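Question thread 4412

I'm putting together a teaching handout and wanted feedback from people who do this every day. The idea is simple: show students a protein as raw sequence, then show them the structure tokens that encode its fold, then repeat with a second protein so they can compare. Below is the first pair exactly as I plan to print it.
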Amino acid sequence: MCQATAGLAAEGLQKGGKALAAGGFPSTVRCDTAYAKAYAALGHRYARRLSSPRQPAWKIGAALGITRPVRIEKRDLTRRTLSRAVA
């Protein structure tokens, strides 16, 4: 997303789009990706969690108390499947 003091904006979806957008605007326009804007607004609050090692789905499921399979209509959902759904 590009922002100028005049309120002009353009959005780049990837880093490559950001570079292309930056080349098409004057130096008074700041270009960022939508992800960068979201991180600046809220993500910095969760930086510690975002930079921590990934947890396997089964550990997340165990922490949430998923301990046995669940039957939904005619299907049995295993603990593994349920854990992946919430991870």
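The second pair follows. I'd like the answer to focus on this one:
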Amino acid sequence: MSSPRRILFRRSLTTLGVAFTSSAAVLGFATPASAITQTKATAQLRTAGIPWTSTGDCSDRNHPSCTSFEGIRQATITGIITFKRASGCAITITGGTETGHPGSSYTHSGGYKVDIRLSVCVQNYISARYTYLGHVSGFGHQYRSPAGNIYTRERTHWDILYYTCGC
């Protein structure tokens, strides 16, 4: 049975998601399944107060030491913005669509994933609110959000797979 506090929290997240989705539609953002440009992605991240970094201090998608958002899905950008707002944590993106990530059905290069810097705030938020799925050998500890997205704590960062816009 859910506690009144948990019900209120879920309602707040639902309201936040509906409000953001409605605002996104009014502002003319791309549909959730569509890929967007580096310029559109960085403008949205900058507005949301989400910085990004790369070891190469660059954004070239074809260079693994860069952090690129070229071709990232709108749902992924919306997802990380929603996560930041819901968690209240400072978020720094360390990986996007650049080459150098392992492949799978839902990849970084396909625009489904971002990597973010480790922090105590993010760890506490995820471990308290998301379902622990277990440890995947060679990958990390995985959690599933109520929206169905997968958060994997790797050795040096969080690898986040956004199937949907919700966090």
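Top answer:
Good format. For the second protein you could add a caption like this: The longest strand covers residues 131-136. Helices lie at 4-27, 38-48, 74-87, 120-129.
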